[in-house]
Structures are given as structure tokens and as C-alpha cells.
Design goal:
Length: 313
């Protein structure tokens, strides 16, 4: 009798990647607790309210924006799960690149062509960039004159990125399935809801450290900081955080308070990422572990049985 065919082994991530996934969020939480304990007049409630606003925006509104430009027709639950998993991976990689690569991989696994998946994720990012550009224009009208060069460079960076994307990719996507009609406009409008949640996050953190900022000023600072995120950097220690710190100082916060707000924002973002995104990845791993392989039981049991048969032979 022919031996049972052995399924090709899956490519496993290196051990250091799994160690990084475990240690980096823990380090972020330690930094958050340490920063929290050294801040005078710290109040927990405004920070938690702000975190809730941002969590809803990032893990519900953003998947809704993605589904608006998607041509796959999947359920909102699928988009939310994949987006949350990608966010956790993106926080571990420079330029948040892991998030987009994960989404592209899942779209391809769901039956999309690679070119179509890339265009879909790029369209989602571009829809979010429209609101960033709008906030950047708002920043140019509200920040002090000495910050005009920074605001101008931020808006110019977005404009150049959009122009280059259109110039380089349009000839390549002529035959690729992409969003049609008002899908992009709807996605851009949905992105405005995410920005509202982000503004609530920043205002909550500023209130938590004992200061106050105006709604218009906060929106302008967010526009500058998100435009600065186009430059290379990692989560919690990149141009976006530097631009936000400078913007908060320009709005009247002491430097120590501005740094505390940015540090807490970067650290607290790990909480929903671990719970929502990490929970999705853990559920996916358990599903693979206990999924049946040809009706013979869980895969780990099948592999153990095959190893025993090999030793016996």
C-alpha cells in the first residue's frame, strides 16, 4: 500500500519574530505605566474616554472605509478582523508596512488577484489621505506663522505622494479591477469619522495630563502629524510623534506635558491592538491547529502520527 502523502510543511515565522511580537507590546505598556506614574495631576477617566473614541474609529470606522472601496464583497466582520490583525503587525514594522502587506495577503487568499489587492489597499489609504490633506490645509490656517514652512512641507509631501502614485501606477492598473463610481467619495467621507475619533483621543489625553486645547487646534496638529507619518519611522518614535509634540507645544502645552501626551498615545494604542488584533491572530492559529486534515483529526495529531509511523518504519 502506498504511504500516506505528506502535506507540504507551512513556512513558519522565525522565532525572533514571535519574541518581538510578545516583547514589544509589553515594553510599550511598561513605558505607559512609567510615564503615567511620573505625571502630576494625571486623571484616568479622560484618557480612557479618548482611547475608546480612537478604538471605535480605528477598528470599526477604518474597516468600514476599506469595505467601501473593496470589490471583494466580503462581510464587515471579515474586513474588521483582517484590519485589526494588520494593525498589530503594522505597529511592529517601520512605516506601518506590515498592516498593508497583511491585508494584501488576505485579499489574495480570498481569491483576489495580487494587482487588484494592491490597488484596493492603496485606494483605501488614499481615501484616508484626502482627510489628512484637508486637516493639513486647516493646519496652515491655524498654526502660528513660524510653523508655516512645516505645514507647507507636510501638505506638499502628501500632494507629491498622490501625484507620484497616480503617475507611476495608473498605466499598470489599466486592466485591474478597481473601485468605481462614488465608492472613493464614500470612503473619504467615512474617513472623516475616523479623524473625529482621533481628535477625541488627543483631547482626552491632553485633559488627562491637566491641560486643555481647542478643537480647531487639535485638528490642525493631527493634520500635520499624520502628514509627517509619510516619512520613515516606527510606531511611537517617528516623525509623526515629533510633529505632534511640536504642534502641542505650539498650542500652549509645556514640553513635558506634550511629550507625555504623545508617549501615552503611542503606548495606549497597544491595548486595543493586542486585544482585538492579537485576539484575531490567536483565534486564527487555534483554528489551524484544531482544523481537520482529511477527516483524520487535528493537524498536530496527524503530524505526530506520521512521525510515529516514520520511526516505526
Amino acid at each position: 500500500m502506498d504511504p500516506t502523502p505528506v502535506a507540504p510543511a507551512r513556512r513558519r515565522l522565525p522565532r525572533w519574530v514571535w519574541m518581538l511580537v510578545r516583547l514589544v507590546p509589553l515594553a510599550g505598556l511598561i513605558v505607559a505605566v512609567g510615564t503615567w506614574s511620573h505625571l502630576p495631576r494625571m486623571r484616568l477617566e479622560p484618557a480612557l474616554v479618548g482611547l475608546a473614541c480612537w478604538t471605535v474609529g480605528n477598528y470599526l470606522v477604518c474597516p468600514l472605509r476599506w469595505s467601501a472601496v473593496s470589490t471583494r464583497g466580503r462581510s464587515l466582520r471579515w474586513y474588521a478582523r483582517v484590519y485589526a490583525e494588520g494593525e498589530l503587525l503594522g505597529m511592529l514594522t517601520p512605516q506601518h508596512a506590515g498592516a498593508d502587506l497583511w491585508r494584501i495577503r488576505q485579499l489574495v487568499a480570498a481569491g483576489a488577484e495580487k494587482g487588484s489587492a494592491v490597488v484596493e489597499v492603496a485606494a483605501d489609504r488614499l481615501a484616508g489621505g484626502v482627510m489628512i490633506l484637508a486637516l493639513g490645509v486647516l493646519a496652515g490656517m491655524t498654526v502660528p506663522p513660524r510653523f508655516f514652512p512645516i505645514a507647507g512641507l507636510a501638505v506638499a509631501a502628501i500632494a507629491v505622494a498622490v501625484w507620484l502614485t497616480r503617475r507611476l501606477w495608473q498605466p499598470r492598473i489599466a486592466d485591474v479591477q478597481r473601485p468605481r463610481g462614488w465608492a472613493f467619495v464614500r470612503a473619504a467621507a467615512i474617513s472623516a469619522l475616523y479623524q473625529v475619533g482621533y481628535i477625541g483621543f488627543v483631547i482626552g489625553l491632553v485633559t488627562a495630563v491637566g491641560h486643555h486645547v481647542s478643537l480647531l487646534g487639535t485638528a490642525s496638529v493631527l493634520g500635520l502629524s499624520q502628514a509627517a507619518s509619510l516619512l520613515p519611522g516606527v510606531h511611537g518614535a517617528g516623525p509623526r510623534e515629533g510633529a505632534m509634540t511640536g504642534g502641542l507645544v505650539a498650542l500652549g502645552l509645556p514640553l513635558a506635558a506634550a511629550v507625555s501626551v504623545v508617549a501615552l498615545a503611542a503606548a495606549l494604542a497597544w491595548l486595543p491592538a493586542i486585544v482585538v488584533g492579537g485576539g484575531g491572530l490567536a483565534a486564527r492559529s487555534l483554528s489551524r491547529m484544531f482544523s481537520t486534515a482529511g477527516g483524520t483529526g487535528p493537524r498536530w495529531a496527524v503530524r505526530r502520527s506520521r512521525r510515529a509511523d516514520t520511526r516505526a518504519a
